[in-house]
Design a protein that fits this description.
It is a single chain. The protein is α/β, with parallel strands linked by helices. The chain has a single domain, classed as 3-Layer(aba) Sandwich (Protocatechuate 4,5-dioxygenase, Chain B). The chain is built from 9 helices and 11 strands. β4 and β5 form a beta hairpin. α4 crosses α9. The chain starts with a strand and ends with a strand. The model has no long low-confidence stretch (mean pLDDT 97). It binds ligand LPTKUXOY and fe (ii) ion. The site of ligand LPTKUXOY has 14 residues, from loops.
Amino acid sequence: MSLALVTMSHSPLLEYADPPAEVADAVQGAFDTARAFVKDYDPTLVVSFAPDHYNGFFYDLMPPFCIGYEAVGVGDYGTAEGPLNVPAERAEELAQWVAERDIDVAISRRMEVDHGAIQPLEILFGGIDAVPTIPVFVNGVAKPFVTMRRVRRLGEAIGAFLTTFEDERVLVLGSGGLSHDPPVPQWATADDAARAMLLSGRHPTAVARQARQQRVIDTAKAFAAGTAAIQDLNPAWDQALMATLASGDLSPIDAMTPEQMAKDAGNSSHEVRTWVAAFAALGAAGPYDVAYSFYRPIREYIAGFGVMAARTAP
Ligand SMILES: O=C(O)/C=C/c1cccc(O)c1O
Ligand SMILES: [Fe+2]
């Protein structure tokens, strides 16, 4: 049973920033290529590994991983609001399979997902309910972080489950990364108001959401102008990681530590956990070929911006 994969950076700033036309066009070209890859594969099921940015998961209960049996988009940054098309029985079977392989995952019967999960579905499929999708939350912003080996093992376990389907064409998605350090608050440095949001800031008022988003939009403008107090992108780190993922041997990733990742590639570099899980899932079906790889460091989007597409080798 073969699998296919698309991993892509997301950025809410795609809709709110104005990079040079050549850069915006290159990104749109990468999306076009990924869309054509997906159209050609024609998936019947998507398993989407995505982080959250304190829109669905908060410090009142923060799991490292969570499989959604149902899911609803919260509509941040103008992304689609409302239910995803989640095949609940398949999701339940997946959670059982993973639990039996010694990986502890939370489950949610009403997972709330943000731009991290929604943006790739909108870009690749034009909507959030076009193809049955099992959402898998992978914590990429909130300390403490599990080891990268654990993330790889989650991906391998999920991939092994997917290879048992004779009747599906499964696409695994990974959303997030690469190097980037957007102004998502950190518990250790947050003031009381920010801590209240990090603890249980579900369903903010429109005014509160707007203020939070405007801060990120303003930071992106300043970052592009060279005046933002956030960590710079790290193209060498990004491209080295993409080369490892493309190689088919993910073992070097086990040595990556959260501390070094944040130091080298910013506090949101932990979002690459979704890419690692997705590639590990793909690898469970055997050797794979990378069909497409795109990378640009784009300050206007606060993102080392990558897109990869791959498929089990024939
Ligand atoms: O505002 C947020 O919660 C996150 C913003 C952001 C900005 C740039 C790249 C990303 O991956 C983000 O999630
Ligand atoms: Fe993100």
